[in-house]
Request: fold
Amino acid sequence: MNTKHSPIYYVLTTLIILTFLAPLLWATMSSVAPAPGTAQTEGFGFANYVSLANYGLGLPLYLKNSLVISVVCVILTILVSATGGYAFARYHFPGRNALFVLTLSIMMVPYAALLIPLLVWLKQIGLQDNLIGVALVLTLFQLPFGVFMMRNAFEAIPKELEEAALIDGCSSFGAFWRVMLPSVRPSIVTVGLFAYLAAWNDFMVALYLLSMQNAPLPLALVNMRQQVMGVIDYGATTAGVVVLTLPAIILFLALQKYYVKGFTAGAVKG
Reply:
């Protein structure tokens, strides 16, 4: 089979790659380049990163807060999406289709409109200004996509595979855990990756629900200002953008093959 592409293909793909990489490359260069009003005023160096590390309550605290929110959101999203998607794909119960449509309808509601009611609810259950509370809110917004992906992924698995496991002595949960989940691993990775990116980069939910003591890195970056006339420290800010972006890029590149397979398996049916 001929796999050669025309020169136009390579030109277009190169332009697309450069379009996506240009902002990151600019931020990386700006974070180490000399600029007035920043910690790096002469020559190239990492003074802006030192300034970032010492900003406010310290970069390690903001990274820890972001990590806690992201990990909890990923775990909850995968757990609920996998079990919910399996139920929608394999079990028939009254109102199944209506409940599935209702779950998907959450995506049609701007999540900013729900933040005030969610703030009141979190206060009532004692999770106001709490990292776990923010993770719960972000999980709520990720579940429609996650359930949709997992339902389609489970529907693509032949029922005979599950029936064979039951015949061999597995319980329903055993078949789900030992046979079905490994079969949809790419879709699980895709759902988890989307949940991680949403939680790691979230700003608005944290702005509404958290104080600076519990602020994740995106919220801390927005508040990173010099105390003289409110001038923004662009050097430290661009350094923060690089620090915020690198984990997402590394994780995406490491899981890329699962991501592509998961999107293919979870998006062709439905």
Notes: Residues 266-270 have pLDDT under 50 and may be disordered.
